[in-house]
Design goal:
InterPro entries: TerB-like. With 141 residues, the chain is mainly α. The chain is 67% helix and 0% strand. The protein has a single domain, classed as Orthogonal Bundle (TerB-like), CATH 1.10.3680. It has seven helices and no strands. Helix 1 packs antiparallel against helix 4.
């Protein structure tokens, strides 16, 4: 599937956001993100560069908003599969799967791309992420 530049940028932003889910980007994740951004020719993009170089942190809610934008109102199975594979590649990169990352994968895997009520699935994912983030924040204090 040949993706347009906007779609590629969204995917890379989602990957960067997923890397931030555990509160920091691991060295292995950083290497993977730079490889993907370079391979997809978006590493120097003004929107991607500050995220890629960790000049700006990404909140979980931003990441989920990007997922929603990327998949659209009625996501096709091809876009969904590519997203799931890309995020899985990133998450398993550092050899450990943080609780927040595991829950993201579980939520993504539970999205049924053939379901006409995709809004309900997005709401479920977003609520799950918000809950995880709140738990994580409270566990840090």
């Amino acid at each position: 599937m040949k993706q347009d530049k906007a779609s590629v940028k969204k995917l890379v932003k989602i990957l960067i956001g997923a890397a931030w889910l555990d509160g920091r980007i691991q060295p292995e994740e950083r290497e993977y993100l730079h490889h993907v951004a370079t391979e997809k020719d978006v590493a120097a993009d003004p929107e991607i560069q500050p995220l890629l170089n960790e000049l700006k942190t990404v909140q979980p809610t931003e990441c989920y908003e990007w997922i929603k934008e990327y998949l659209g109102e009625h996501p096709g199975s091809e876009a969904y599969q590519e997203l799931l594979e890309s995020i899985s590649g990133l998450i398993y990169r550092d050899g450990e799967v943080a609780t927040e990352e595991a829950r993201l994968l579980t939520k993504l895997q539970s999205l049924d791309t053939t379901d006409s009520s995709s809004q309900g699935a997005y709401s479920s994912v977003l609520q799950g992420i918000q809950t995880l983030y709140r738990r994580w924040v409270s566990s840090q204090s």
